[in-house]
Amino acid sequence: MQLEDHEIDAIRKQLEKRTILLADGARIPAIGQGTWRMGDDPFKHASEIEALRLGVQLGLKLIDTAEMYGEGRSEALIGEAIADIRNDVFLVSKAYPNHADRKRLAAACEKSLKRLGTDHLDLYLLHWRGATPLEETIRGMEELQKAGKILRWGVSNFDTKDMEELVSNPNGANCAVNQVLYHLGSRGIEFDLIPWQRDHRMPIMAYCPLAEGGSLKTQLLKDPDVVRIAAVHQVTPLQLLLAWSIRRAESDGIVAIPKASRPEHVLLNAQAASVQLSEGEQRFLDNAFPHPSEKVPLDIV
């Protein structure tokens, strides 16, 4: 995909206006790039490489992956894609919960670094909670940070009680982010997790902001209000869903990481940063897909 320099610059400038502040002062874009299931199909290899590189060029410099994704194939793909632009990327990976003790965490991190072709991660997450005590995992993360292998650490798929327990441990408050599922059709974290993390100045990284495939995604994309509001903004329903997920990115500290394995989809994701929903439009969407009125279990895929 060929874009003119002025087109790239215009999109980058919009993304530069939508950034999230981390506790250590670093800023990350409100939209990044997810990579689940990327690297699995050799016939998509060239397109996925092009998509990742275009995303960085457009300002989607945060790339999220995990050792679980294709058992390392996603990390290897990213390593190839960013080999000559590593300094332009905010690189995130995640460790299996059965690698959450200090020794295995260090070994898993080294393997991820090797596949990614880098000497450090900008952010390293525990993919979900397992049997290892949180205190042990925190110690492992802190040791990796002191060794320069990671610059920050965080967690994924932690609910409010998990976060409360995490920060009650020594150095637990050093957690930089919590990555959880969040989209218009799954708003459970708005009840208490988003407020808790906002109060503790810990941003949320929203995975599956466009919803995973299936009947729910179809319902979202065909909803009359979604279709109508998207048309008003001259964007696709998927772009509207992405814009909705970061509608309060700066105040609530939310980063969305949609996957796009094709350059044209990366472009659409990047353009969504310029969509600003009015209060009235948000009310229509709230009526169609209500804010939670009570605590619900954390959605996980």
UniProtKB/TrEMBL annotation:
Where do the catalytic residues lie? Answer: 69 (proton donor)
Q: Which residues form the NADP-dependent oxidoreductase domain?
A: 31-281
A Gene Ontology MF term for this entry? Answer: oxidoreductase activity
- Could you tell me the superkingdom of the organism this chain comes from? Bacteria
Tell me which residues are marked as the site Lowers pKa of active site Tyr.
94
Q: Which SUPFAM superfamilies match?
A: NAD(P)-linked oxidoreductase
Q: Where does substrate bind?
A: 127
Q: Which named protein is this?
A: Aldo/keto reductase
List the lineage, top down.
Answer: Bacteria, Bacillati, Bacillota, Bacilli, Bacillales
